[in-house]
Amino acid sequence: MQGLMQDKPLLISSLIEHAATFHPEQEIVSRSIEGPIHRTNYRRIAHRAKQVANVLNELGVEFGDRVGTLAWNTWRHMELYFGVSGSGAVLHTVNPRLFPEQVEYILNHAEDKVLFFDISFASLVEKLVPKLKSIEHFVALTDRAHMPEVDIPGLLCYEDLVEGASVEYDWPEFDERTASSLCYTSGTTGNPKGVLYSHRSTVLHSLMAMAPDAFNVSVRSTLLLVVPMFHANAWGMPYVAAMVGAKMVLPGEHLDGEHLYPLMRDERVTFSQAVPTVWLMFFQYLDAHPELDLDKELCIDTIGIGGSAPPRAMVRRLETQLGAQVIQGWGMTETSPLGVVNRPLPKHDDLDRDGLDELKVKQGRGIWGVHIKIVNDEGEPQPWDGVHSGHLYIRGPWIASGYFRAEGGGVLDDEGYFPTGDIATLDPDGYLQLVDRAKDVIKSGGEWISSMDLENAAFSHPGVAEAAVIAIPHEKWQERPLMVVVKRAGAQVDEDEIMAHLAERVVKWWLPDDIVFVDELPHTATGKLLKTKLREQFAGYRPRREAVRS
Amino acid sequence: MQGLMQDKPLLISSLIEHAATFHPEQEIVSRSIEGPIHRTNYRRIAHRAKQVANVLNELGVEFGDRVGTLAWNTWRHMELYFGVSGSGAVLHTVNPRLFPEQVEYILNHAEDKVLFFDISFASLVEKLVPKLKSIEHFVALTDRAHMPEVDIPGLLCYEDLVEGASVEYDWPEFDERTASSLCYTSGTTGNPKGVLYSHRSTVLHSLMAMAPDAFNVSVRSTLLLVVPMFHANAWGMPYVAAMVGAKMVLPGEHLDGEHLYPLMRDERVTFSQAVPTVWLMFFQYLDAHPELDLDKELCIDTIGIGGSAPPRAMVRRLETQLGAQVIQGWGMTETSPLGVVNRPLPKHDDLDRDGLDELKVKQGRGIWGVHIKIVNDEGEPQPWDGVHSGHLYIRGPWIASGYFRAEGGGVLDDEGYFPTGDIATLDPDGYLQLVDRAKDVIKSGGEWISSMDLENAAFSHPGVAEAAVIAIPHEKWQERPLMVVVKRAGAQVDEDEIMAHLAERVVKWWLPDDIVFVDELPHTATGKLLKTKLREQFAGYRPRREAVRS
Ligand SMILES: Nc1ncnc2c1ncn2[C@@H]1O[C@H](COP(=O)(O)OP(=O)(O)OP(=O)(O)O)[C@@H](O)[C@H]1O
Ligand SMILES: Nc1ncnc2c1ncn2[C@@H]1O[C@H](COP(=O)(O)OP(=O)(O)OP(=O)(O)O)[C@@H](O)[C@H]1O
Ligand SMILES: [Mg+2]
Ligand SMILES: [Mg+2]
C-alpha cells in the first residue's frame, strides 16, 4: 500500500525558488574576475538563473545535455548552478587547474555542448578549441566591456546573452533521479573519472549537510566559500546556502590570505570551508601581519576542512587563534562529498586541548544516510576498535553507483557498497580515521606502513615544508618506504635529524629506508600529492642504507 | 539521462539503524505507565524493534496491514514506531482521548489487525471489543506482573511476546512511497479523517525538522516529548531523535507540571514541544511552587509550541521566566505536521521584548520543501503584505494528497495544493499569521471577523480563563459574533468589563453582539475548542443587544 502523500520530486530548482521566495534580499557577495566586489541577492540570482535556462534553450541545449564550466566561485557560477541543472541539463564543472590535456580529455569525454568560462581561462580555452570535439558554443563569463581578445570562433558574451533573455520561465518538473551535474575526480591516478549526480542525491545531501551535527548551516550563517565550485560541487554548499537562504561570499580567483582576510572581515563571515592548503596560505598571511586584531575584526565561528588530512597543529591554531570550531569532514567526489563529519560528542566536552587535537585529527563520524564498513583484504568486516584497519566501503543515497560512461566498470561490492580506495580505522564511538590510500600504503613484510602517518610525523618537524612517502620495491620485505622532503625556506635540516624526529613518533620498522631532499613535489590540480608522478621519478631508486626492518 | 547515484530508498528502519550504530548508548528515559522511571537506549530499542517485527510476523500481520496503538509516550511506543513501520506494516496511532465512539469508528475504519494498548486504556478497550470488526489480536503494553484484569479474549502480553521473539531480523527494503503510518485528524468537524504517511514523507520531514532553522535537533539535544505520539507522529520527533541520536525523555501518561517538572530537571532537558494547554498547566505548577529555583534547576533552551495559537503572554513568560527560546510552528495532521516555523531572522536581533512578542505570536515562515499560498474566495492569490488574508493552501513532499479510503474525495486544487481550511495573512518577510479557521470565521456584511483574534483579546483579560467566539445568524449582516466565556476561578468580571476590554483591542464592528458566561467549554480530544458542539448548544440563541455594526 502506498502512502497518500504528495508526489513532489526533489529538484534543484526548488532550492533557488525557496531562497527567492523567503530570502529574496539575502546577499551574494563576490570578488569578480574583473576585479571589483560584486553584490547581488537571491531574487536576482533566481531571476537570472531563469534567463540562463532560456539562453540554453536558444543555444540548442536539450534535456540531459552537458554544459561545461571552467570557472571560479562567483555569482555567475551560482546562476549556472541553478540555471543549468534546473532546466534539466547537466552542469559539468571542470577543474581549470588540471593539466590542459586533462581538461581536454574531460571536456571531450563528457561531450559538453556549451562551455562557459571565466576570462582568466580565455587563453587556455583558445588553445584547446581545435581539440574539442563536442562544444558548439563558447561563452565568456563577463560583460561586453571585458570580453577577452582571443581567437575563439563565435565567442559569446554571458552578460549580453543573459540580459537579452526573457525572465519568463517555469522550472520543469521531472524525475528526481535525472542527472543534475557531473564532476570528475582529482586524478591522483591516471585520468579523472566522471561522477554523475542526480537532483535527488543533491537535495538529500543538502538536507544532511545543513544539519546541526553536520555543517549546521542556517539563515544566520555567512559562508565564505573557498572550496571551488568545480571541486565536488563546492562540498554541496551552493545548494545548502540556497536551501536556508544563507548569505554567501564568493572569493573568485584569489584564495590567498591577502584576498580572503578582507572578505572575512568586511562581510562578517561566520563559516568557511577549504582544504588544508588554503589554511596554510592563510597562516602565512597572518604571520606576515602580526598587527591584525583578529578577535576584533573576525567573527568566524566554524571552519570546515576536508579533502586531505589537516595537520594537528593546523587544527589547534585555527581553534585557538581564530576562536573558531574546526569541523573536519571526509569525503570524495564520489560521495557528493559528505561521508563522515567530525563533531565532538557531548561526552567530549571536558577534553583539554591535547585531547581535542587528538579527536579532531580524526576524519569524523557517520551521519544519517551513510553506511560505512571497513574490511580486510579478504573482505571480512573489521571491528570498530580504533586499531584494526581495513578498506573503507560506503553506501547511501548520495554515493556513486558507478562512473560516467561506465568508466571503471561495475564498482559496487555485492552488498551495494562503493569501495573508496581509502584504508581506515573506526573507533568504538564510530569515529573514522584514515590510515592511507590503499594505493599509497606500503606493504612491508605482509604488514602495512601508512605513508600518511609518516608524512604527518615529518611535517611536525619545523624544518619540513612538505613530505611524501612512497613505496620502493625490496627483495625481502616486498616494499619499503622512501621519504621525499621539501625543506622549509631557509631551514637547516638533514636526514639524521629527520630520522631522529621520526623515530620518536613511529615504530622502528616504519622508518624510511632513505630520505631524499627535493625542491618541490608534484601535485594534482586540487593541491594533493601526485604520487604516481613521484613513483615515476624515483623508479629504480636504490636506498642508501639497509632496511631497518632486517 | 539518470544520475549515477545509489538508489537507496528512504526508509524509517534506516533511522533506528543509524541510532543503534552511532549512538547505541544514548538514553531513552520514560515514566512508565506502571509507575517507575524506565531507562533504555537506542541499541536496545533497535533490538526490540526487530523483535516486534518478528512478533507481528507470528501474529499474521502482512505488508501494508494496519497495526493500532492506544498508547502514551513511552519506550514501548518507540519500539512500535520502528518495529511496525520498519517491517512494512502501517503504524496506526489512535488518540485515546477521543470519544469512545470515535475510537471505535477509527479502529474499524482503518481495519486494524492488531491493537497494542497501554494498561490505562484496558477498560476502554474491553468495552470496545464487541464493536471492533477487524482486530484479531489485542496486546497489553506491559509485563506479565501488570497484566490488567479485563475480559478481552486471548489478550496478549507485550513483554512476553517481545522477549520471546528472535532478535534476528533484516529490515526489508521496499519502495519508499510505501505507507508507513496512519493518523486521524483531531475531529473539530465530524469524524476524524485518516492521513496516510509514507516512508519517504517521514524521512524528508525528519531531515527538515532537524534543520537549524526549524527545530535544530542534534545529538546534544535532550528532548522531553510532551506532544503525544498519537498526535501527528509527535510532530515527527521520534524519527528526528533517532536520526541524530538525541536523548529522549518520554513522560508517559501524566502531562501536568507536577510530573513534567522533575523530568525536565533531573534529565537535563534542553528542548520540549507541546500544545499551549500543556504550558498553561506548567505555569499553574510554577505558580504553586514559587520556591523553585528555575535558573539553577533547569537547562531548557528551546520550547516548541503548535497545534493552536499560544497567547502572547505565554510566549513572553516562557522566554523570560525559563530563559528558553520559544519556537512556534504551524501544522496539521495532514502536513506531517511541519508547515511553517517561527524563528527570528538576523534582522530581528535588535527587537525589544514587545517587538519579540509581536513577532513570536505569528505562526512562522515557510521552510524548504513547503510551498504556500493564500487565495481569496475566488481563488486569486493574495499579496504578502501582512494585511490581505486568504485561504491557506500548501504543497510539498510531506503534505497529504488525500485521505485514507478517499474520505472527502479529491482534495487538492488544480495546482496540486492542499486546502488547509485555515485563513491567514503572509507578511513581506514570509511570516504567516493565522486569522482563523475558514469554518470559524464570522462573515459579517461581506467582511471577515476573526473568532481567534476576538478570543485572544478576551483571553488577555485576567478574569478570563477561556473564551470561544462563534457566528450566530443575523438578518442584515448574515452573521454576527457571539462570545462564550469561562471565568477564571474566583474572578469577578462581567459583560461590560470584557466588552470595554475588547473595545480597546479590536475595531468596533467586531465587538460581539453578546457575551455569555458558562462553566466550561466543549473540547476535542487534543484540547482544542469544539465549536461544532458549541454551535449546537447555542443554536437559535438571540443576542441581548443590537449588532454594533448597525
Ligand atoms: N579529511 C580528509 N583527510 C584525509 N584525506 C581525505 C580527507 N577528505 C578526503 N580525503 C582524500 O581525498 C579523496 C577524495 O578526493 P577526490 O574525490 O577529490 O579525488 P582524488 O581521490 O584525490 O582523485 P582520484 O580519485 O581521481 O584519484 C579521498 O578518497 C581521501 O583519500
Ligand atoms: N501554531 C498554531 N496556531 C494556531 N492554530 C494552529 C497552529 N498549529 C495548528 N493550528 C490549527 O490546528 C489545525 C491542525 O490540527 P489537527 O490536524 O490536529 O486537527 P484539527 O484540524 O484540529 O481537526 P480536524 O481536521 O479533524 O477538524 C490547523 O489547521 C490550525 O487550524
Ligand atoms: Mg578518488
Ligand atoms: Mg484539520
UniProtKB/TrEMBL annotation, chains A, B:
Residue span(s) of domain AMP-binding enzyme C-terminal: 454-528
GO molecular function: ligase activity
InterPro entries documented for this protein: AMP-bd_C, AMP-bd_C_sf, AMP-binding_CS, AMP-dep_synth/lig_dom, ANL_N_sf
Entry keyword Ligase: yes
A Pfam family: AMP-binding_C
Organism domain of life: Bacteria
Keyword Lipid metabolism found: yes
Swiss-Prot/TrEMBL keywords: Fatty acid metabolism, Ligase, Lipid metabolism
AMP-dependent synthetase/ligase domain sequence ranges: 17-404
UniProt family annotation: Belongs to the ATP-dependent AMP-binding enzyme family.
PANTHER family for this protein: ACYL-ACTIVATING ENZYME, BUTANOATE--COA LIGASE AAE1-RELATED
Protein name, per record: AMP-dependent synthetase and ligase
Lineage of the organism: Bacteria, Pseudomonadati, Pseudomonadota, Gammaproteobacteria, Oceanospirillales
